[in-house]
Amino acid sequence: MTQRVGPGEDTAKSTAESRADAPAQAEVEHRPGGLSSAEVAERVARGEVNNVPVRSSRSAVDIVRANVFTRFNAIIGVLWVIMLIVAPIQDSLFGFVIIANTGIGIVQELRAKKTLDSLAVIGEAKPKVRRDGAATEVPTSQIVLGDCVELGPGDKVVVDGVVAESDSLEVDESLLTGEADPVVKHPGDQVMSGSFVVAGGGAFTATKVGREAYAAQLAEEASRFTLVHSELRSGISTILKYVTWMMVPTAIGLILSQLVVKESDLRGSIARTVGGIVPMIPEGLVLLTSVAFAIGVVRLGRRQCLVQELPAIEGLARVDVVCLDKTGTLTEGGMDVTELRTLNGADEGYVRTVLGALGESDPRPNASLQAIIDAYPDGGEWRCTQALPFSSARKYSGAAFSERDGESSAWLLGAPDVLLADGDPVLAETDGLNEKGLRVLLLARVDGELDAPGIAERAEAAALVVLEQRLRPDASDTLAYFADQRVAAKVISGDNAVSVGAVAGKLGLAGAEDTVDARKLPAETEEMAARLDEHTVFGRVTPQQKRSMVGALQSRGHTVAMTGDGVNDVLALKDADIGVSMGSGSEATKAVAQIVLLNNSFATLPHVVAEGRRVIGNITRVATLFLVKTVYSVLLAVLVVIAGIEYPFLPRHLTLLSTLTIGVPAFFLALAPNKERAKPQFVKRVMRYAVPGGVVAAAATFLTYQLARSHYSGPDALGAETSAATLTLFLVSIWVLAIIARPYTWWRIALVLTMGGAFLVVLAVPWLQHFFALRLVGTTMPWLAVGIAAAGAAAVELAWRWVERRFPV
């Protein structure tokens, strides 16, 4: 499988090396008008179609396999079969619970798959392909060998090919080679799938489609539903590995002690042995994690948010810095021309004609040029002789014309502070407009070739074009949300810093008045990071600088999210911990982002953050519940082996306890709202509570069991001893649940009380007493069991408070 590479990686290759490594291109004839429908059908029949499966989720078979064929399901399955043979059905309830849990996990993941697949279709790239002499949009999977595919700024190159037409076409191949500098493409040059257009336009002929393409797997990797590579899941895997190590020798010792050391009936010994092994397995922990993630995907899907990589939910919950591109994020895509100011005695009518011709010269105008086209339509009297498309690195575009009287002229349109020298009086006028949050472009006349070195230095100002940007109505509330959640917002834009600061100030962003021109930022990572921590708004940022700024923030331990919608954001999106793209953004940004906001609503981000915090915070809570059970189960087994006595519980007892103190409560707690920012060191945070909680629960239960053994006698003594021990273990466990459920709300209190009430019902109803083999005998021992449980609950409370102070995370 082709893997993404980046700067500094051993696998990074130069463009030349990449071309050398790629197999030879197929000889395919270029047809300017494209293939005919008959030719397309013929090539589809021959299998010459781009049939690489681009999935947004695992297949249904993979989901079923992942949920059914697990290590712990295998262990529990064997034990369940044994119990079905040797014991009453009551002692086999744990097997039915596992079947139900597995079914729930499968159903929830299939729901998530359905949601993701439907959203992926909405967000799927549809390149323009010429067929039957006309350009038409087709899904990537329907491109065939020999198709003529059109390219424009922001478009992904979806299959390998050879350039047939080039209009100042510049392609970024950094996702393949690690080289950030755009490559100018001429007719006859090769283009590779996975690269994208940063400037200009053109068309290429598809010479490799499907799995033969050089980087055919890139888009698939960028949009695949994954359940791996997250701190949460790796932490759970680490915990399960240690649990397995503890469980195996303990289970062997328990089996030997029950079958050899204690000479009781074989069936009873097997039942109690299984009763000791089953609770050691935190079987519901993986299930609840999968369910919580899957439900998160479904909830976000309802808000038109496509999660291309599932751990992105977790990652965004850990974010403490979010970098925002102004255009398309804080502002809407469209703009309006509000004023035209002529300079140096230029004729306004002539300037309008120039602007109209400039608009006509670019077949794929950006938002600024589109506003100019709308305001000054072209009269069609001038002929374009040379065009220079807009580039984020240059900050300007241009065109040369043959005018109606035969005269020639060349013009640049771009950032005034780039085209004019420092100190030029026009810049003071520009600054006044920028301070009002307006965007200003300079129209300047030049002599010479547009792509000549230093051409901008010879520009003669002709007019200022004043544009008003449309603020997103939801941007202010979203920025306020991030401030409330202690997530620092950094506005990083290629526009003038003063203008960007004015826009951010209108939205209420703190620190917006203290703007920084990125051209004056230090290049050293440490110094840049210090400036980034001190300031909020940065203007005139180049695409490479955006990438460097993300890296500088990460060097200080920040978890960085980057939002954007243009090709100038791609490098930063790729390097950020979490990349967020707008659905209307370029295909390149959507390819590298982990999250795509299909409704283009910046206001969706708080919901994504909240969903991530809910998942991470709640899984941390319920993981403690599961692992307390594992710890006390292992310790009880060890104590029983050392003491050489019968294991106190049958499987039915621990199934009841697990259901009431862990299973049912954990499901509700895992799906509850949780706004706390996710914290690192998941394993340490969970185990520092699980170990003392499990130790106290095991000690209190074993003490009650030993006292009951000395208190009761006769043929039914074991049942009475088990009931007393079960009472103590339940009360300590319900207190652990009560601690985990904090801070209390009405439903959390009701949840704990309901679980306690259900246990009382079992003790009070005769047929339930018989079914679960629980009957409290006398009053002395039951009340002693309650007293020991109360002491154990107090010990858990004190131990957890001490651990929190002594071992902070």
TrEMBL record:
Where does the P-type ATPase A domain start and stop, copy by copy? 127-221
SUPFAM superfamilies in alphabetical order: Calcium ATPase, transduction domain A, Calcium ATPase, transmembrane domain M, HAD-like
Q: What segments bear the compositional bias annotation Basic and acidic residues?
A: 10-20
Q: Positions of the region Disordered?
A: 1-37
The record's listing under Gene3D superfamilies reads: Calcium-transporting ATPase, cytoplasmic domain N, Calcium-transporting ATPase, cytoplasmic transduction domain A, Calcium-transporting ATPase, transmembrane domain, HAD superfamily/HAD-like
Compartments, record wording: Cell membrane
Q: Is Transit peptide included in the keywords of this UniProt record? A: no
State the PROSITE patterns in the record: ATPASE_E1_E2 (PS00154)
Membrane topology term reads: Multi-pass membrane protein
Enumerate the transmembrane spans: 68-87, 93-110, 242-261, 281-300, 622-642, 654-674, 686-705, 717-740, 747-768, 780-800
Q: Does the keyword Translocase apply?
A: yes
Query: What UniProt keywords apply to this chain's record, in alphabetical order?
Result: Membrane, Translocase, Transmembrane, Transmembrane helix
The protein, known as = Cation-translocating P-type ATPase
